[in-house]
Amino acid sequence: MLTLDRIYLASRVLRDVCRTTDMIKASRINPNCNVFLKTENLQVTGSFKIRGSYFKISQLSEEERAKGVIACSAGNHAQGVALAATKNGIHSVICLPDGAPISKVEATKRYGAEVCLVKGVYDDAYNKALELKEEKGYTFIHPFDDLDVIAGQGTIGLEILDQLPDVDVVVVPVGGGGLISGVAYTIKQLKPSCRVYGVQASGAPSMVKSLADGKIETLDSVNTVADGIKVKTPGENTFDICSKYVDGVVTISDDETALAILTLIETQKLIAEGAGAVPVAAVMNGKIPDIEGKNVCCLVSGGNIDVNILSKVIERGLKMSGRTSEITIALSDKPGQLADVSAIIAENGANVVNVKYDATDLDMNITDCYLRIGMETRNYEHLAQVKRALTDAGYNVT
Fold first, then answer.
1. What own/partner pairs with CB < 8 Å and gap ≥ 24 does 332-335 have?
2. How many CA atoms lie within 13 A of 330 on its CB side?
3. What is the b/e burial string over 260-282, where b = at least 16 CB atoms within 10 angstroms of the residue's CB?
4. Which of 5, 74, 242, 359 has minimal Cβ neighbours within 10 Å of its Cβ?
5. 3-class secondary structure for 205-229?
6. Beta partners for 24?
7. pTM of the full structure
8. Is the dihedral of CA 378, 29, 317, 315 positive or negative?
């Protein structure tokens, strides 16, 4: 059984291995409550996962250490197991889905693990890891459904209560459920009045569906930019703990997650991966109930986002917030039109970043054209202001 004694033991074991990550106030996330960020994205390996994996490996017998360990992961657990095994002089093999970000694959290798790429998603990597476990005699280090792993993650709950004793609500990412199980159990034992909510991607709501149905459910497929919580099936231990100690689990779209990542970069100078940003997205978008005036802690679980994905996410976030846009104007093809349109846009404080001219559309009169203008604006209200100004000047903004 999971116990507070086990979590306190994990805290002692991890004292010289993991950082006590900062709790940062973030007043611009939601003006209706007091938001704090628990910055596990600044943890060793860039994720909370080192806590659970290191504690689990520290408890292995000499025989288990000699045979080596195996794990499967979308990336962060892989790095945690690789580093923990290497620090303890243990051979490690990590099965990763072949779609895992390159940065996470390379980081896992750098931490000393042997990497086995498996076609498919996390659950396919999981099945391959179990196959190799039986074949080679490795000890399997489960990414979430293991009580020692959960105890390691529970040390974050101890830190949250130490750093923010008057916390009212804690919001945690949920994939398989190991992180929220450890955090919720710890907080509910020590401060039962504190509410704990989970957040899943709308494209991978396995825990949401399981809790709603009262039994563990397996999704047919999962699809989300938040690869760290891209899990088809919750764990047995985690489902049981979440059923008892979690106050609710909500979902967030990838677009909302992209905007949260952008907001963290701009307002807090923090890089978060998709899974790390979903608690912030939930609080930004009013998904967590009854938080007005409350002290709310968002657990930013990791920062290991591939730079190629990051650039796409930033672009999506800019569009989501009305910061970049494209408007199309139908007009007569005659001299001076572009100059007039550009002047109106400039007078309203927007910035033109690209212009496309199309006089070949078959739906137009032969003397007309479409002018497509890419702009930078402050927000949706500013964009609406520009469009109104163009309309008032007699232009047809389509």
1. 332/367, 332/368, 332/369, 333/359, 333/367, 333/368, 333/369
2. 10
3. bbbbbbeebebbbbbbbbbbbbb
4. 5
5. CHHHHHHHHCCCCCCCCCCCCCHHH
6. 37
7. 0.88
8. positive
